[in-house]
């Protein structure tokens, strides 16, 4: 046995087993066994290693030894957690930090097995903190429903565990936050495996909203606040109380939460923060006269409007698209309850911003266009990908809202791509940059943010009220900054001349000059609506119906170069079962808009497109080919666009950067744009691109022949059938 470490007073923690070390440090059982073996006194002594040894057991048995908890914590503090970033103070998290956090929550985690329900334990623990907080000062009639019962049901073990947690953390409110999994350092709800943390607002979003609101002092100047869909109060309690003290709940704040369990836990949490705040089940309750916050006055009053309105609707996927009370309904409700000079902040899934109007009713699109048309949208912030620790496959946005204005038609909305800013800035620096942009305290980088008009001042101009996606990533597109396209192109031509001297005359004959007049751009959606382009959607075909004979199939693998075109095919008989499947024609442009944009021109036609691959057909191109085949004269103005020109323009950087999606980055084809060029310029561009494609095909054939030759020689030598000799 190791010598006991001298400590004054009784040991604050009970001894821990190897299994508890594993659980509290967040590692596997083999890791703990490896630590114990590699860093034993004997192993370190034989290697003449001066590092501290793994603590020796202080009791237990050979098969189940017990260790001093604080000795283990001290030893683990010497071991940083791999692949973690330093915190705000520059300290790298260690296994000791995890272990100490787990020790603080250990007693409550153990109680979960006795009570049999995580929600019951959390409710009883929060009820205990609530009664020790503001609940002690309330008359019985003002206590939230169920508080007295939950407090009574919490037995001595729960109260003792809560008391220890409060002592460890230092305050009732922070202990409640730890139990709900909201505290940054202590997340008991995770260790209890509670579903409550699944829908909490991410901390980065809370910090951003708090930065936009600014200090909301708890004195006479405190701004009134309504929190709709309050959840567990993340946004509500995220507001800074300012230098004069914490937020006051008596008559200044009110929350609305439809879910009964979250409503109860939110009321308990607020009391633990010494805030008595009404928590209503429905927004309509705000219009009922009463003495809000338990502060009777001469007459009861309503809490219909406020200076600040927060909304965090449940994170729901697209199946809620046709729900009349979807996320944007709550945004509308937030605007309706604003005071004239107030602001609202609504967190919504980004699918609410990308939906377009179709034949079926679209409440989401209607709500979005109403918010825009009435001038209530001040800014749309597309939040970074994977910002939610549990719902990593979803994306979210923050709407900064104001009361309806119905003013000038040239009103603009600030669009901010915080995902791009976060990738560039790293860490949480993006929060400050975004806040500065919204508050007009910084100059935006045109690649990150720009203002877009609600209505265009000229026909065909860009506007937000066009029933298309208003997601910043789909709208914020600018020319490449810091690039002199003329100089870069001339340099590229010189390099091509040096590499291919036989093409010097052709390359020199290219008419390249700087454009003197600005060029306008139009969305592909406008070209499709006008009938200039026809969109061909990819189809889903069963793998069993794809074979080696029939029409070529083009899917993700062919577009990515993983399979040659023609290797996968589908017979006409099998294709007959898919009546909506699209077959390409000569000149169709095939597009894969995932993880960037890849395009290729179908030179022969007769291919079947597999989702997510799409196709674009230039109207009039078939008639153009017929006229060419007959030898009829065809002028440059015969077509507004040519296939190779269309394919290359779609793959330009300005369209590549339009991607959105948390797991798979996709580019909306209809939100891509094309420059409006003269038919003569399009014809010249097509001629250059057609010739370059022919030359590239020749080079590819040469490379394929050389690759095949090298492979056959190596295979013959390897099998002993070939003998090589120098001639």
UniProtKB/TrEMBL annotation:
Pfam families: N6_Mtase
UniProt KW keywords: Methyltransferase, Transferase
UniProt cross-references to InterPro entries, sorted A to Z: DNA_methylase_A-5, SAM-dependent_MTases_sf
Transmembrane helix keyword on record: no
Gene Ontology molecular function, alphabetical: methyltransferase activity
GO BP annotations listed: methylation
Transmembrane residue ranges: none
Matches recorded under SUPFAM superfamilies: S-adenosyl-L-methionine-dependent methyltransferases
Keyword RNA-binding assigned: no
Gene3D superfamilies in alphabetical order: Vaccinia Virus protein VP39
Domain annotation DNA methylase adenine-specific: ranges: 321-425
Protein name: SAM-dependent DNA methyltransferase
